[in-house]
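Notebook, p. 212. Picked up where the previous page left off. The plan for this session was modest: take the two constructs that came back from the sequencing core last week, fold each one, and keep the raw output in the notebook itself so nobody has to go hunting through shared drives later. Recording the first one now, exactly as returned: residue sequence, then the structure token string.
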Amino acid sequence: MKFSDIPSHESAKQRLRDMIDNNRIPHALLLEGPAGIGKFALARAAAQYIHCENRIDGDSCGKCAACLQHQSFNHIDTHFVFPVVKRKNSSGAVISDDYISEWRDFLRDNPYMDFQQWLVSLDSPNAQPAIYVSESEQLVHKLSFTAHRARYKVVLLWLPERLNVDASNKLLKQIEEPFGDTLFIMVSNNAKAILPTIYSRTQRIELKRLPDDVIADSLITRYSIDETDAMALAHNAEGNMITAINSIS
């Protein structure tokens, strides 16, 4: 994912570029804002830019080994953390890696991170997935090793508001005393629900709803919708690309 692949959010993109180019990346960064606006895509683009071996004009090259690994969700120094459900008939620990195949498919098909589609991917449409303490324990273990190929290990954490209490407390210690080569980029749809002690230790970038014309252009390009219909759908979606896409009959 490159910055140029993401419509809108030009100010946020520039802030991220400046942080990375000037080596002033916070150890815990939070992208917050409403659902359906491309926050996680922006987090992915930032991680790829951090690891890119040949940045060009304020963007990752998309061609080096690191970029190709990011595009296949296989970069060795990038770790994904996301809400999961306990598998049926299982009482053991559950972590994101248990669902990594489903996660990769979800990322390919849902750049705007439709939460309901993630539940379908988990085969649990009525569940309330969470990030459990076993996840935090596993993550701390992973991060104890030095980065393999890059200067930084990057943790992309989707929906920190779904960390349970024990997981939050375990992760808090890691954020308070981070490894020098570790960066957290968190993406939240509801920042008010994040544990306040974690929220206060992040540097935050607030993202706004998408403009109607951006949504309409995407609908026209991707779905060959008439311009008038696309603008109507975009207006009704109130800045949420997921709502606009799901409203196509």
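Okay, moving on. Second construct, recorded in the same format:
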Amino acid sequence: MCIVIMKKRDAKVSKKQLKESFDNNPDGAGYLFAKDGNLTIKKGFFVFNDFYDNYSRDMAKFNNPIAIIHFRIATHGLTNRTNCHPHMVDGDLGFAHNGIINFVDDHKKKS
């Protein structure tokens, strides 16, 4: 099952926790946060140091905002950047989940 972390504003998630989550769910990582009144998603990380460098830089640069962090373990779809979470629903809503959405048809390529 995927790992989703809801990080509160000003909270810290340790590098050790992030690395353990990444190592246990190796099919891609990503995160979402608010920047300048807009949601920003960074995803498609398959190397921990790439993920951590980007994540820690963004948390420092944008004053440690609320963030959703996702570590994927593939159950459906290809292991690629597109299928990494979080996903945007529209310009104001993003999401990540850690299970299978049963009422959606299986797709060979899409998560």
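Notes on construct two before I forget. Helices lie at 15-24, 48-61.
Flagging for discussion at group meeting.
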